[in-house]
């Protein structure tokens, strides 16, 4: 295995304390390294030092002769005077790059919605970032350094990038160093993890999941060591005060395997208790959309949409840009009225939305964090625990020094955390989160998820962060073709649906085909629908629509019966095996019927076209 890059005794100080303190690390052929750490810990700085973009105060970085390194950091920009094709492939002729399967794959994966002759300056910031990433990936490099490459990518884009990086090089060839807070992505692409903290780098084998287990064990050992040290100091102080040696027994410590550390951890969420408490706060009715349609001029975004949001539901929404996710959120929050149908909102519903623009903090810029917290009273969580604003601030990582800081001087990640706490302390019972992971590191994401697990309300989430989506929501839906499609298979099912839809389009998506191609409707999700559905007469269409509604009502009823049976099992005597077996059989029968209804629903939907 060839050695590509080495760093020896790296030291860097920006005048506020060492960012890097005598770090020695190396990069070999075959390495796939994910870098994690708190915001401001020095991850991006270390990446830039290794890439040669920043000179360290001391130490050196050596690169093996002939090693080709490509870098994408957060400050990289594309020449806005170039066309998209020029920015990605340079001066290569179109027939040359269009015949290269690798280039076509990168373009269809990252810029399927952008025409090749579009001027970069006319693109949004997110689109320019994708063009810059495509430019890096098109080249032939021995090592690639990427800083937050999943920013501005949707779920399909993140999945494509992970797959591309896994198959980019043969086994034990090439090297990848990536800084990201996307934990699913880390688990997919990395085989080793570097944690940057306090000017040091701790190394772990495996991706994010393996890193978490190893870190828990390492922290436990450190806590035991610190406890032992403190006990010794207390005994030493007692001896000094009494003037005689203390007689003590030496405690015994046992180091458990990583899996034993989580053996007694309770379930992530007590779903039954959460639903019960949410129902007590909300009542039976939360938000119901009845045959809702929304149009912007001649463009119809949503049509004939039926959706019932119940107490304690945790819903994740997925969909392409422009599919209607934001429109659906505005309908739920009451910010927008439908152009057809109606939205019924329960009398006790209090909706709050975590906006991407930090609007909740605009009027608090000059106030200290502690003063903001004093505006609110304690809240009660679904586990019965009551938490004060101060305890919530501590839980979300605010130090005593940061409590004295004016809100306007907080970092982006700190403002994001404070924004969430302000929203939660206002005591809504329906919470809408639109891309809540922006500016948060992996530790703060874990703290956010832990807090939301015990938050007693209804939750609706839109996020490209696959890990967070699967972690905090119980049901996922795709916004597509103007309606909602339930995803029993979760995000994996949505990714597969997206692949099928893209496979139904010609060539490499809309790249190089202009705006007309980008505006063309996608093919339906199911393979059987690739052929045009036969035209239905008026009577036939009404009959199909009537049956479709009946199927949807029965599916909703089955979901209600299934939840009720689960609740009965939770409350049932666990030693009554006969009773439990009867209910398990009932659950299986409901699941079988639901599967048949889903197939019939698809058939009827195809007939309607």
TrEMBL record:
Q: Name one Pfam family in it.
A: ABC_tran
Region Disordered, as annotated, extends over 505-540
What GO MF terms are annotated? ATP binding
SUPFAM superfamilies in the cross-refs? P-loop containing nucleoside triphosphate hydrolases
Sorted keywords for this record are: ATP-binding, Coiled coil, Nucleotide-binding
Q: Does the keyword ATP-binding apply?
A: yes
The name this protein goes by in its record: ABC-F family ATP-binding cassette domain-containing protein
**Which stretches are tagged as biased composition: Low complexity?**
517-535
Q: Which residues form a coiled coil?
A: 344-371, 541-607
User: PANTHER family annotated for this entry?
Assistant: ABC TRANSPORTER ATP-BINDING SUBUNIT, ABC TRANSPORTER DOMAIN-CONTAINING PROTEIN
Show where the ABC transporter domain sits.
5-223, 287-506
